[in-house]
Automatic annotation (TrEMBL):
Native source organism of the sequence: Meira miltonrushii
Keyword Lyase: yes
Protein name in the entry: Phosphatidylserine decarboxylase
Keyword flag Lyase: yes
Alphabetized UniProt keyword annotations: Decarboxylase, Lyase
Organism superkingdom: Eukaryota
One matching Pfam family: PS_Dcarbxylase
InterPro entries: PS_Dcarbxylase (IPR003817)
BP terms from Gene Ontology: phospholipid biosynthetic process
Record-level Gene Ontology MF annotations: phosphatidylserine decarboxylase activity
Length: 359
């Protein structure tokens, strides 16, 4: 146990001693970071001009650490040493304990101020604007927003699909396209994603449409129902790994989505009155340094409207994935599909329209 703690301290200290710069300070350097898979560009559909790209904010020690851990696949990266995976799990668990610690209020407030500055958080959007009311780092991390800052477009339109989160989004008409363009893990399939290992209870066709909502640390970390009314049919927990959900790992040979700890919800959606309900899956995926996934409005047997809160993630980047079968006849918005087919994520806000069912 002492040896594990010593190794963990060394690994954490090594990353943090590498520095704390957030963004390479020139476009040329940013291009180099992207080329060497130590960073990525994201398109912003709400920018002027639309889909203008930006370089994603991330501390330099995190960039280098992820590169060492996840570049070139498991056989060549640091993860070829089996004990590293165990250390990642312990780091995630320990970070969760730190983020839930309320015994050092001054440190919590210092963290909050630094976090706001680092990630340019707009505190005017917060439901609770008195920062001293946040007693732990996590309470601020999964902060609530004012109800009017993420409006629900066409709330009575049951065919519309909204973004489940503030996120970097990828959408594909067919999960096979996602495998060709974005997800390189060898074990990735719809069946592997939506089932517990050794179980095939949940069923959706491999030709299903897929939306991948990646949350970065800067994002609002509560996620919402993307369609509605939708009824929760079943839920199951699966996976035990704590790989990062950053493109550094997703674009390499790591089974990020099918190995990571995750909660799988099967739901039914009726986009058109008088027609049969359509089953779909919603998967909440934990990641490196994520303390937990908590459902707040996803009770089995209950129905929810589009835009209602579903749950939240504690500290760390995380991902949600929605999978819709061909019967849903999903048509993703053109700009999102165009970016995704080029391998570019798009920044969107929770509840924002991302597609529609033509069923």
């Amino acid at each position: 146990m002492k040896e594990d703690k010593s190794s963990l301290d060394k690994l954490s200290g090594y990353f943090k001693k590498l520095g704390c710069s957030i963004i390479p300070n020139s476009e040329e350097l940013q291009d180099d970071f992207v080329y060497y898979k130590m960073g990525n560009y994201v398109a912003n559909r709400n920018a002027s001009p639309p889909n203008d790209r930006f370089f994603e904010t991330m501390p330099i020690y995190v960039r280098i650490g992820m590169h060492l851990l996840f570049y070139s696949g498991k056989k060549k990266s640091l993860l070829r040493f089996g004990r590293i995976e165990n250390l990642l799990k312990k780091m995630s668990e320990r970070e969760g304990e730190i983020y839930n610690d309320s015994t050092k209020p001054e440190e919590v407030q210092t963290f909050i101020q630094n976090f706001i500055k680092t990630y340019s958080i707009d505190t005017e959007d917060l439901e609770e604007q008195d920062l001293t009311k946040y007693k732990t780092r996590n309470e601020f991390f999964y902060r609530k927003l004012k109800k009017d800052v993420r409006p629900i477009p066409e709330p009575d339109n049951t065919k519309l699909i909204g973004s489940a989160a503030d996120c970097r989004l990828m959408v594909f008409d067919n999960a096979d396209d996602a495998k060709k363009i974005w997800i390189k893990g060898r074990q990735f399939s719809v069946k592997e994603l939506i089932n517990k290992k050794g179980d095939e209870t949940n069923k959706l066709p491999e030709g299903s449409s897929i939306a991948i909502y990646r949350l970065a640390p800067a994002d609002y970390h509560r996620y919402h129902h993307p369609v509605g009314a939708a009824k929760v049919v079943s839920q199951v927990h699966s996976g035990e790994e704590f790989y990062t959900v950053n493109p550094d790992a997703v674009n390499e040979n790591f089974d990020v989505f099918t190995a990571n700890t995750r909660d799988i919800s099967m739901l039914e959606w009726t986009p058109a009155d008088g027609k049969p309900a359509i089953p779909f899956a919603f998967v909440s995926i934990g990641a490196l340094l994520v303390g937990s996934n908590v459902f707040t409005n996803a009770t089995k047997g209950s129905s929810y409207k589009r835009g209602e809160e579903m749950g939240y993630f504690a500290y760390g980047g995380s991902t949600c994935i929605a999978i819709f079968p061909p019967d849903a006849k999903v048509k993703w918005d053109d700009d999102l599909l165009t970016n995704s087919n080029k391998g570019i994520e798009t920044l969107v806000k929770v509840n924002e329209r991302i597609g529609v069912s033509e069923a």
